[in-house]
């Protein structure tokens, strides 16, 4: 049995009086690529943000590599976990290089400028993601797809052991959607990262993830391998709609589409 | 040189900083030469206390230019910090009630006609400073309802507190006699009346705190501008950082406003122009904004005391006349894209 990267037990969360997550329990094994699915508004993003303390949970325990979340300082979490949010607008004009360098924050000394080592790491990550030529461009002036790559490069520059991805490919066109998904799965495999990926893209799950966690109404409905979880019957109970599975003409992997009424 | 280039290289940043530094040296030397009274070079450097030109230059104009420079630098620097915290280029400490609070304190002092002074600082400054502190305290308390000081709440609290204090000021003015009312109005316009070096020493601690404080937090400011969530995910303790910066800058601005009156728009104009010139990386933006804000206010103040010489226009009027249209232009830019 391998190490558990993220271990959540009896976790509750609410905004004011509105409860969002109830008695959540789940485990993400180290080194695995885990997909999290579920209808809009069931608390997937909130759960993700609880893990690196963007929001603070109210009850229950979150353990990272066997250690309680509360025992980590925010900087330690910054060295452990990289986070890529949904595509969003950027109001201040940083260059790509500046933006990725900023992500080295958890390694900075308060009063010293970033070291050569930090700059080297940034160049390395930009090259890895294929952004070398974009170094001096301003982040708000490049296309949405390239910008999302910049966010990924920045998260990787934190040299994390865990990546939390909150629908990073939503709002992107099909070409970038596929390209960035491939990039993430390739890089995370090569670097041996643990990935927890919130997604609505059911079709790609078979090819890149080893585990699926399904959330509904603030609770974990089921978790298991893609083959176990992604069945027509399960999907119907998760999304309250019927799905049909068709084999892909080229790969024979199932394609999941909602049934027409 | 294009105002907003696609790429900003390190070399460009350094050249902008060097340019601003040279301009600073030039302006600090040249502006004291300009004024209602023309000065002769030989008298200025005669170092004789009998010479009027020597006194005007070294005891009046040089300290005044220095105070203007420091005040402008601080206001601009604090504006930059607030814009980073609130991720909004239209915010400055004044939007958060500090200036209204300080003005309220000064208004009360003038209305009561008190002649007292605290620890050798003039009474009006102490009252203005206390007013600024009061507003910071109220904004902080309001924003912390339910124990969670979110940025949007702080902004709203600041607006509410501003309007509240402005109403109180109007009420006090209404109950004042003509002379007091004039004095209040005059103070609200902002101005620099400096003789000798005491005002320079008074403002110096605030300059030091601002420089050290802002320099200490440049990395955090960078990350805050990318959004609260992303900043936390990179390891910034956002709640603590925002709290420290908010209180720190409010105090510094309170200090400056209490000395010079509410001089508006410096805190918006300087950081914005510098962002266009040098980008948003606060390691370069902070020194550039300091210098530019200082330069801007020094030049405005020189205009204030020369345009209608021997009379003076309050410098706040000049910054507002330049700042108003600039603000509109900036707002349009923001809404366009």
What is the C-alpha radius of gyration of chain A, as a whole number of Å? 19 Å
Specify the CATH homologous superfamily of chain A.
Answer: P-loop containing nucleotide triphosphate hydrolases
Task: Please summarize the sheet with the most strands of chain A.
Answer: 6 strands, mixed
CATH topology of chain B: ABC transporter involved in vitamin B12 uptake, BtuC
Number of helical stretches of at least 4 residues of chain B: 14
CATH architecture of chain B: Orthogonal Bundle
Please name the two chains that share the biggest interface, counting residues whose Cβ lies under 8 Å from a Cβ on the partner chain: A-B, 40 and 33 residues
Separate helix tally of chain A: 9
Distance between the termini of chain A: 45 Å
User: Uncertain segments of chain A of ≥5 residues (pLDDT<50)?
Assistant: none
Helix and strand run of chain A: EEEHEEHEHHHEHEHEEHHEE
Strand portion of chain A: 25-35%
Summarize the structure in words.
Chain A is of the alpha/beta class and 261 residues long. Chain A has one domain: 3-Layer(aba) Sandwich (Rossmann fold). Chain A is 33% helix and 28% strand. Chain A has helices spanning 44-51, 74-80, 96-102, 116-129, 144-157, 174-191, 202-208, 226-229, 232-239; strands at 4-15, 18-29, 33-37, 59-64, 67-68, 81-84, 162-166, 194-198, 211-216, 219-224, 243-247, 254-258. Chain A has a 6-stranded mixed β-sheet, with helices on both faces. A 4-stranded antiparallel β-sheet of chain A has the order 2-1-4-5, covered by helices on one side. In chain A, α3 (96-102) runs parallel beside α5 (144-157), α4 (116-129) crosses α5 and α5 (144-157) packs parallel to α6. The longest helix of chain A has 18 residues, at 174-191. The mean pLDDT of chain A is 90. Residues 1-6 of chain B have low confidence and may be disordered. Chain B has one domain (21-336): ABC transporter involved in vitamin B12 uptake, BtuC. Chain B has 337 residues and is mostly helical. The chains are: A alpha/beta (261), B mainly alpha (337). At the A-B interface, α2, β6 and α3 of A face α9 and α10 of B.
């Amino acid at each position: 049995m391998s190490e558990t990267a993220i271990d959540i037990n009896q976790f509750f969360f609410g905004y004011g009086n509105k409860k969002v997550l109830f008695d959540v329990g789940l485990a993400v094994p180290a080194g695995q690529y885990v997909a999290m699915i579920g209808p809009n508004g069931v608390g997937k993003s909130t759960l993700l943000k609880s893990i690196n303390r963007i929001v603070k949970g109210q009850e229950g325990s979150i353990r990272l590599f066997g250690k309680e979340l509360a025992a980590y300082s925010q900087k330690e979490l910054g060295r452990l976990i990289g986070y890529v949010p949904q595509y969003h607008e950027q109001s201040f004009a940083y260059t790509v290089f500046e933006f990725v360098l900023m992500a080295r924050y958890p390694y900075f000394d308060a009063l010293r400028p970033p070291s050569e080592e930090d700059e080297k790491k940034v160049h390395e990550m930009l090259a890895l993601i294929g952004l070398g030529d974009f170094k001096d461009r301003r982040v708000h002036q490049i296309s949405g797809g390239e910008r999302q790559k910049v966010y990924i490069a920045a998260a990787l520059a934190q040299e994390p052991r865990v990546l939390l991805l909150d629908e990073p490919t939503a709002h992107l066109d099909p070409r970038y959607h596929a390209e960035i998904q491939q990039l993430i799965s390739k890089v995370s495999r090569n670097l041996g990262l643990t990935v927890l990926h919130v997604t609505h893209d059911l079709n790609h799950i078979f090819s890149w993830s080893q585990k699926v966690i399904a959330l509904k109404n603030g609770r974990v409905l089921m978790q298991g391998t893609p083959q176990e979880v992604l069945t027509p019957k399960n999907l119907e109970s998760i999304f309250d709609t019927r799905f049909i599975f068709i084999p892909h003409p080229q790969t024979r992997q199932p394609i999941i589409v909602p049934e027409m009424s | 040189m294009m105002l907003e280039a696609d790429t900003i290289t390190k070399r460009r940043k350094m050249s902008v900083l060097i340019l601003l530094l040279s301009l600073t040296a030039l302006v600090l030397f040249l502006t004291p030469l300009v004024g209602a009274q023309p000065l002769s070079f030989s008298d200025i450097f005669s170092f004789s206390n009998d010479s009027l030109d020597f006194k005007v230059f070294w005891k009046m104009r040089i300290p005044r230019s220095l105070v203007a420079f420091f005040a402008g630098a601080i206001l601009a620097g604090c504006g930059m910090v607030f814009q980073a915290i609130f991720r909004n280029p239209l915010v400055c400490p004044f939007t958060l009630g500090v200036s209204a609070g300080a003005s309220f304190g000064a208004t009360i002092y003038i209305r009561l006609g008190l002649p007292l002074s605290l620890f050798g600082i003039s009474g009006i400054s102490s009252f203005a400073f206390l007013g600024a502190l009061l507003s910071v305290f109220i904004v902080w308390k309001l924003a912390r309802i339910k124990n969670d000081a979110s940025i949007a709440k702080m902004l709203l609290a600041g607006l509410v507190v501003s309007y509240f204090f402005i109403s109180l000021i109007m009420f006090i003015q209404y109950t004042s006699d003509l002379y007091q009312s004039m004095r209040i109005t005059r103070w609200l316009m902002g101005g620099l009346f400096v003789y000798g070096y005491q005002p320079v020493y008074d403002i110096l601690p605030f300059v030091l705190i601002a420089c050290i404080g802002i320099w200490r937090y440049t990395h955090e400011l960078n990350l805050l501008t990318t959004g609260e969530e992303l900043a936390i995910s990179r390891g910034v303790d956002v709640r603590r950082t925002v709290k420290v910066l908010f209180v720190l800058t409010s105090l510094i601005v309170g200090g400056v406003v209490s000395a010079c009156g509410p001089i508006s728009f410096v805190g918006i104009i300087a950081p914005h122009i510098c962002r266009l010139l040098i980008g948003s990386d606060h390691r370069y933006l902070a020194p550039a904004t300091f210098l530019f804000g200082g330069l801007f206010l020094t030049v405005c103040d020189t205009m204030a005391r020369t345009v209608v010489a021997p009379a003076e226009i309050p410098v706040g009027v000049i910054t507002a006349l330049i700042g108003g249209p600039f603000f509109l232009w900036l707002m349009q830019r923001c809404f366009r894209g």
